[in-house]
Amino acid sequence: MTSLLDNSVIITGGLAGDGTAFKKTWVIHAGRRAEQVVTTVGVYGAKVRVGHGSKGGWDPFGPQRVVTKSDGNLLYELDGQPALQLYKKYLGNRASELPSSALLFPLAIRSARNDSREVVRTILAVDEQAQSLTFAGDIPQGSIAQLMRANFERLVSGASDAARMTMAVDTASPCLCIAVSCVGRRLVLGERTEEELEAVASSLPLGSVQVGFYSYGEISPFTAGSCDLHNQTMTLTTLSEG
Q1: Model confidence, pTM
Q2: How many CB atoms lie within 10 A of CB 223?
Q3: What is the C-alpha separation between 84 and 74, in angstroms, rounded?
Q4: pLDDT string in tens for the chain (242-residue length)
Q5: Domains in the chain, please, with CATH?
Q6: 236 and 15 in contact (C-beta within 8 Å)?
Q7: From CA 51, how far away is CA 43, in angstroms rounded?
């Protein structure tokens, strides 16, 4: 999509999900349920203002490690060690609950150790025989990976930060806010999920309206530029008229 569109076009959205089942998803196209398709909506106009923001709020822990062997979204080795074996070491008792418990412990991926730009990747499956991990997004070989874990307050704060990022284009007009939150955040927050939505609402202009869904991956620019695939974030798109 980015290769065919002008750089000024913002691409945001999310991947359909079915909770923690990871079995079958669908979207609505031409008024009907459709599988294995991409549905897009284009918005344009001289007065249209589009804002976007994407934040996680997960706490990193443990050392940064080099991805020494990977293939697309399959991770085989970190620092030359079997990825699954190393991952289980940090999960402790939660390792027996894999792959579902992996939603609570995503990986932060950077191109270099001192790179402030990071994307979060969620584990979808584990392979005991290959000692590999399957992620909802590519894990480039040579990149830097670090384990992350949930912090309730920071997750809620991350949602608020995402809302403030959308206000870079307009701080006063009421807007439609399309919220795409990762299903992993829903599982972690549990009964506190409403706090994430309230944090977004309190950071938007008065009169704004929210809609959205829980996803298996969020699509948004990091801060500016072309879009990226994110996991475990609250990703927002705001639409308003100037």
Answers
A1: 0.82
A2: 11
A3: 11
A4: 888 888 888 899 999 988 877 788 999 998 999 999 999 999 999 999 999 999 888 889 899 999 999 999 999 999 999 999 999 999 888 899 888 788 888 999 999 988 878 888 988 889 999 999 999 889 999 999 999 988 888 899 999 999 999 887 666 789 999 999 998 888 888 888 999 999 999 999 999 999 999 998 899 987 666 788 888 899 999 999 87
A5: 13-57+151-241 (3.30.1330), 60-149 (no CATH)
A6: no
A7: 12
Q: Which residue has the tokens 């999310």?
A: 14
